Amino acid sequence: xxxSNGGMIGKLAILVMVALLLCVVLARIGWLVDxxxxxxxxxxxxxxxxxxxxQTLLGPLLLRHCTERWQETSGSxxxxxxxxxxxxxxxxxxxxxxxVAGALNxxxxxxxxxxxxxxxxxxxFDAQWPSLEDLQPPAPEHAGGTVRCEAPALMLATSDARGxxxxxxxxxxxxxxxxxxxxxxxxxxxxHAELPAGLSLTEPLQVQLKLELAGTERFxxxxxxxxxxxxxxxxxxxxxxxxxxxxxxxxxxxxxxxAHWQVSELASSAGADVLAAKPIxxxxxxxxxxVDTLDFSMVDPVNPYVMSDRAIKYGLLFIVLSFVTxxxxxxxxxxxxxxxxxxxxxxxxxxxxxxxxxxxxHLSFALSYGLAAAxxxxxxxxYGAAMLGGRRQGLAFGVGIAALYGALYTLLTLEQTALLxxxxxxxxxxxxxxxxxxxxxxxxxxxxxxxSGEEAGPASAP
Length: 462
What we know:
Elements: H1 2-50, E1 55-74, E2 81-93, E3 97-106, E4 109-111, E5 114-116, E6 118-129, E7 146-149, E8 153-158, E9 164-171, E10 174-176, E11 179-180, E12 190-194, E13 205-216, E14 218-222, E15 227-234, E16 239-243, E17 249-253, E18 256-264, H2 270-275, E19 294-298, H3 304-312, H4 315-333, H5 339-360, H6 365-388, H7 391-413, H8 418-436, H9 442-460
């Protein structure tokens, strides 16, 4: 009995060591996935540096640069000194109504094997100001001072000006020349245009700006207006909506999406925050807190590296389930399996994840998964026929492996219910093992193994 128990414990110890070795293999494959993910991230950064990165737009806004000059007197009598002082400041006014509409369709870029999601399209900004009274020069803050202001200008800021392919501006129905830069220190990148001379600061103003824009992965707009409407269409079928406000209406299909945002100053302080030069993601700014944005991102839900990483997390569970299946055959059918055979089965299961990663870089994830799973299931079915003592047993083993891969694919595609399905799968396997082995007398099994060993011992002696 002691020899039998020692033999069983020894084999279990060897199998634990085999499992640990396979964990190292899985970890190494996981490191390879991380390395490829890092390379993809580098590809995104490379495209952003050579073309245009994620875009955040602010505007149009009206600005007026002013300077106050005054005299400061110090001392008295012969020590009396008069110095000229000045202070520069900027007057700003957000639109009363801002409507932005356009289409941003896919324009992917590639760096080697890596695809980078990009977009390009046309946007039209229609902005209205009920009056320009906020741009009237204010009274001097210092006694005897004077305030002089430049002509009002219109500006639009962007996080990456390289994505501004074309801009056409109409102010009060008249074309206006567009110049680079915003002239606003807090958000310097973008464009600006001086308003035509002769505009009345007490009359309403309408502005129409047409942009051809390109960017990478993410688009955002700051709702810096009394009332903002944003309408975006795209042929990207997997948008992820972010920012501080979700679309009030959206339609998503395999052909793309349409989304509509509507935000007022009652819900967002973006207009006041911009005039206070608060920070905006990608644009700059100063102080604490971030300005509200409306945005969407081009998320790839079947990213091969993310999916491979998630699949590897279930690798050890697959190996354990396969070992349990082989162990049941040993117990129920009396077929002895060597630890090296366990190791080869585990290695085959581990190679699946390497096949999945390498194939998914060239093919769709679903097709890559099917090919890798079929290859491993056929290999283990063929090997299982010899290991388990018959074609029928090998076929059953191969079918079982294929079923496990089918369950794993379900776990990967149904992310929200993955934990539930995984828990149910583990429970069902454990229940099956307990039911199949409930009548086994493990002590009798050990005695039979001991007797077999004693009978075989003298016969094998020289």
